[in-house]
Write a structure and sequence with these properties.
alpha/beta; MmcK; about 450 residues; about 30% helix; 2 domains; Alkaline Phosphatase, subunit A; single chain; hydrolase activity
Length: about 450
């Protein structure tokens, strides 16, 4: 198959197959029509299915282990301090736009997570929601920021405080941000020179986290008849209209890929992982927290502590190893047996009703062929990601809660996103077994870039 002249990637963070392919298919005539002429299907995300690093894995073909990035925050050293936020500097592997720049070809990159601070590329880059504000240097070239401010009257990096009880504000901001993101994408697509264009709308993710229990009758905390019951349908209809206008702005025969980095699912509740470690005797404090306290600020007795955790969509267990951590307690010879004990106990832990929880405790060396940076000793999918891993101490709620420790939240990530590729000469139809790692080699073939790695393109 010949390389396409132009390739546009439309990223919808957290867009899920059950909504895009099924429940709202009739409400999304543009996307459904695009899908009929596409190679499409559910797409398995990475482990862990987290926005950062998923988009960088997608655009490089590398695993989190190869990148050395395992989430929004990672250990910077073998110490007991707080985790460090990942930035674009954390991604050392070239992504598609870097390969295009090296080949002397132009790209437009808009809002793709993992691009702050923005890198100088041949073309234009508007960095992601991790930029602290639009007062920071969030575009390359820098002057592009003034152009966006004039176009939008105030460029939105993200929905501020999207985990909030101010539902009216959050819902309006999600709708506004998606409309603006597609407007900016149309502007850049028609004013910039490019062979490759990639942008990401964070709207679906923010909507899912803020409103899943209101919109999904199967959510365990659903409130029948609530004022936001139709919000998902309204949003996906609006998203489809934005998609239609954007597609109309593209040159004829542009290859189009619509993709998400992961899916979403109802959040059943949260497990206080550090409180569980305390209960099991693995984590020891010298004094009780006076209130909600991050583990990095707690009075931990490191000389008597075996393990501690950091939380989020998945849990990260770190072992306190002799010769590795400053006050390590686990002899190196007992590392594997200790890790196995903790993993087995977590996987056997029942839920708050005494029923099997389905937790998975994963070892980096088994997930990745290469492990760089400082990976967690265990990656823990509590309830197979239907429960959030909560690291906060001193909440006074036992081991289980129905809430999040960082604000209202009703959804957790799922391991399956979406994929729909419409390209000249492609054979349309549903494809099973799609992987996020298929994207980069396929883009390279479409763009005429040199293959990398052993994984082949979906184009055969």
């Amino acid at each position: 198959m010949p390389a396409a002249g132009k390739v546009a990637v439309i990223g919808l963070d957290s867009a899920t197959p059950q909504y895009m392919f099924d429940r709202f298919a009739e409400d999304m005539p543009v996307f459904t029509a695009l899908r009929r002429k596409s190679l499409w299907g559910p797409m398995r995300s990475i482990d862990p299915p987290i926005t950062m690093p998923a988009w960088s894995c997608m655009m490089s073909g590398r695993s989190p282990g190869e990148l050395g990035v395992y989430g929004f925050r990672d250990r910077g050293a073998y110490d007991y301090g707080p985790l460090k936020f990942a930035t674009s500097h954390s991604i050392q592997a070239p992504r598609i736009w870097d390969e295009m720049t090296a080949a002397g070809r132009s790209s437009v990159v808009l809002g793709v997570p993992g691009t702050y601070p923005p890198a100088p590329i041949r073309g234009a880059m508007v960095s992601c929601f991790l930029a602290p504000s639009t007062q920071s240097r969030y575009t390359s070239p820098p002057g592009l920021a003034d152009e966006l401010e004039k176009l939008t009257g105030g460029y939105a990096l993200d929905v501020e405080d999207f985990r909030s009880t101010d539902l009216e504000r959050v819902s309006q901001r999600v709708f506004d941000m998606s409309e603006q993101r597609f407007e900016v994408a149309r502007h850049l697509a028609t004013t910039q020179e490019w062979d490759f264009l990639s942008f990401v709308d964070m709207g679906p993710d923010r909507l899912h986290h803020g409103f899943w229990k209101y919109c999904d009758p199967d959510h365990p905390r659903h409130e029948p008849g609530n004022a936001y019951a139709g919000l998902f349908r309204d949003y996906y209809r609006a998203l489809d209209r934005h998609l239609g206008r954007f597609l109309e702005s593209l040159p004829e025969n542009t290859t189009v890929l619509v993709v998400s980095d992961h899916g979403a699912q109802p959040m059943v509740g949260g497990l206080f992982v550090n409180e569980w470690l305390r209960k099991e005797g693995y984590l020891v404090l010298t004094e009780e927290p006076a209130g909600p306290t991050p583990v990095a600020q707690a009075a931990v007795d490191w000389k008597r502590t075996t393990a501690w955790a950091e939380g989020g969509y998945y849990g990260r267990i770190f072992l306190n190893v002799e010769g590795r951590e400053p006050q390590g307690t686990i002899p190196a010879a007992e590392y594997e047996s200790t890790r196995d004990l903790i993993a087995s106990a977590l996987e056997a832990l029942p839920d708050d009703q005494g029923q099997p929880m389905g937790t998975r405790a994963l070892r980096p060396g088994e997930l990745y062929g290469e492990v760089n940076g400082i990976a967690p000793d265990l990656l823990v999918y509590v309830g197979n990601l239907r429960w959030r891993a909560l690291a906060t101490l001193g909440m006074g709620k036992g081991l289980y809660t129905t809430e999040n420790d960082t604000g209202p939240d009703h959804a957790n990530h799922g391991d399956t996103g979406i994929f729909a590729l419409s390209a000249p000469g492609i054979t349309p139809g549903r494809a099973d077994g799609l992987s996020l790692y298929d994207v980069a080699p396929t883009l390279r073939e479409l763009l005429g870039l040199a293959p990398q790695g052993s994984r082949g393109s979906l184009l055969g």
